């Protein structure tokens, strides 16, 4: 007998079946993250701590109440990993992306 | 080998889509279950044995190229030669490849070896297996791709760095993503910790001199459905040589010598007695019936079929700047105007199964259909 006896797929069919329900796969930290473009400068956010570091943000706003007023500190997104969400421009600047992928059509062969 | 016309399953599109096979059709059919190929077991055993032998000969060809410094035939950037040799001597992990074979009147001939980024893995391993379960589950099929992939990822686990295994492909292609995610599925079933990252999201930390994933963690093991010949010529290509993590890329660098059609004249020079290898040369003038192929090309592009020194058929494309080889013309058999090419899969250095693509003309191109098969 030359054929496989039994086949199970855990990723592709699970992704189709789950539809709008998050799968365990997504909760296990194996998310595919949206690229927060590390080559672009981040907008400055005002934050009540007096840290000299610039804090960056993306998408959904977050902020802090300060002296009775809400100050938006920036935006964040669940589609960007925590490591990519907060930090300083200095660290982010050392990682560049987009150096592969110019041949962006299918590799079909 | 016979081709028989059959009735497709009712609502076959829904059946294959439930398997996650979303690219079964474009504006022309790709997955085609209106026909199937039938083989006798002794034919399959012959194809299996020939594939095993061809794999061994290919390994010999890699060593020969290195021992005799024949890289100039392959248009490989010179800076990458030490890296390729290191990937060979350090035995960097490799998992798969696909021989494209012509089979006619009991003769089997190697047309080319897709050793770096072969596709149609999902169709061959999964879709045609499930088709057979519906069509006639009592029949056999040359297909243990799924079992062998899981088993070999389990074996390779001990040879990878103790770090996640990343999987990468281009963003825009459902076919590429399906092939990659299927590989990742098998690796997960083998117990590996995996991550998906698209190829243009791969980062390079200029300070630490390592590749980074989207969680800003170093990449140490990475399966790529993305060809070496593109990577070495891109901005990050040189970083592969600088990488302080010395990440394992799968398929490894030495596969550049097998995925390149310059392999074909090398095989002919080394093994002219092998019945599966066609005469092939780097220069014109030795053959009057031949196929001129770019050493680097995909999906049948820029192919020229020449009979009695006259071009009888050619395909367009953007390839050829790296040079050409000339392989003796072997007429693929016609089954009512359909020309099949057998894709014989090597998984973990062993023959594992077969997928058949057929075309309405002599060159298998991006309009070719995938036809399932069974063993009588």
Description:
The complex is a heterodimer of chains A (109) and B (376). Chain A has 109 residues and is of the alpha+beta class. Chain A has a domain at 34-92. Chain A contains 4 helices and 3 strands, in the order H-H-E-E-H-H-E. Chain A has a two-stranded antiparallel sheet. In chain A, a hairpin with a 2-residue loop joins strand 1 (60-66) and strand 2 (69-76). The longest helix of chain A is centred in the first third of the chain and has 7 residues, at 12-18. The radius of gyration of chain A is 21 Å and the shape is elongated. The two termini of chain A are 29 Å apart. Chain B has helices spanning 12-17, 41-67, 81-89, 121-136, 145-156, 174-189, 228-231, 237-242, 263-270, and strands spanning 2-5, 35-39, 96-104, 107-114, 165-168, 194-196, 203-205, 210-212, 221-224, 248-250, 280-281, 290-294, 304-307, 310-314, 324-328, 339-347, 350-359, 369-371, 373-375. Chain B has 376 residues and is of the alpha+beta class. In chain B, strands 4-3-16-17-18 form a 5-stranded antiparallel beta sheet. Chain B folds into 2 domains: 2-260 and 342-375, no CATH class; 279-328, no CATH class. The chains are: A alpha+beta (109), B alpha+beta (376).
């Amino acid at each position: 007998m030359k054929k496989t006896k039994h086949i199970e797929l855990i990723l592709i069919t699970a992704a189709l079946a789950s539809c709008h329900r998050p799968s365990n796969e997504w909760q296990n930290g194996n998310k595919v993250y949206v690229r927060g473009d590390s080559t672009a400068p981040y907008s400055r956010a005002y934050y009540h701590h007096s840290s000299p570091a610039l804090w960056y943000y993306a998408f959904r706003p977050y902020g802090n109440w300060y002296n009775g007023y809400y100050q938006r500190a920036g935006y964040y997104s669940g589609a960007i990993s925590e490591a990519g969400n907060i930090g300083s421009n200095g660290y982010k600047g050392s990682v560049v992306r987009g150096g592969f992928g110019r041949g962006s059509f299918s590799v079909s062969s | 080998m016979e081709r028989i016309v059959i009735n497709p399953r009712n609502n076959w599109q829904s059946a294959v889509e439930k398997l996650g096979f979303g690219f079964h059709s474009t504006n022309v059919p790709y997955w085609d279950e209106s026909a199937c190929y039938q083989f006798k077991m002794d034919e399959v055993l012959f194809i299996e044995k020939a594939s095993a032998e061809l794999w061994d000969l290919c390994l010999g060809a890699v060593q020969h190229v290195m021992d005799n410094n024949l890289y100039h035939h392959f248009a490989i950037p010179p800076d990458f030669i030490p890296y390729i040799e290191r990937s060979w001597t350090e035995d960097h992990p490799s998992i798969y490849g696909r021989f494209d074979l012509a089979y006619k009147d009991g003769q089997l001939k190697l047309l080319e070896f897709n050793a770096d980024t072969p596709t149609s893995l999902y169709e061959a391993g999964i879709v045609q297996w499930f088709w057979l379960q519906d069509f006639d589950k009592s029949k056999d099929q040359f297909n243990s791709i799924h079992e062998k992939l899981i088993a070999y990822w389990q074996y390779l686990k001990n040879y990878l760095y103790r770090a996640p295994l990343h999987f990468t492909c281009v963003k825009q292609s459902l076919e590429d993503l399906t092939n990659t995610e299927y590989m990742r599925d098998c690796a997960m079933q083998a117990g590996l910790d995996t991550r998906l990252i698209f190829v243009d999201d791969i980062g390079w930390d200029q300070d630490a001199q390592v590749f980074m994933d989207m969680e800003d963690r170093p990449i140490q093991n990475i399966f790529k459905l993305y060809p070496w010949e593109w990577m070495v010529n891109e901005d990050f290509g040189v970083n592969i040589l600088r990488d302080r993590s010395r990440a394992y890329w799968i398929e490894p660098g030495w596969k550049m010598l097998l995925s390149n059609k310059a392999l074909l004249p090398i095989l002919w020079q080394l093994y002219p007695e092998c019945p599966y290898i066609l005469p092939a040369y780097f220069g014109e003038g030795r053959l009057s019936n031949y196929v001129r192929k770019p050493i680097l090309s995909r999906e049948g592009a820029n192919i020229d079929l020449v009979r009695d020194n006259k071009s009888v058929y050619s395909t367009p494309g953007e390839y050829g700047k790296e040079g050409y080889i000339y392989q003796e013309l072997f007429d693929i058999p016609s089954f009512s105007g359909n020309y099949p090419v057998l894709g014989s899969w090597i998984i973990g250095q062993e023959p594992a199964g077969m997928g058949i693509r057929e075309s309405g003309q002599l060159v298998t191109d991006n309009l070719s259909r995938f036809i399932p098969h069974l063993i009588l």
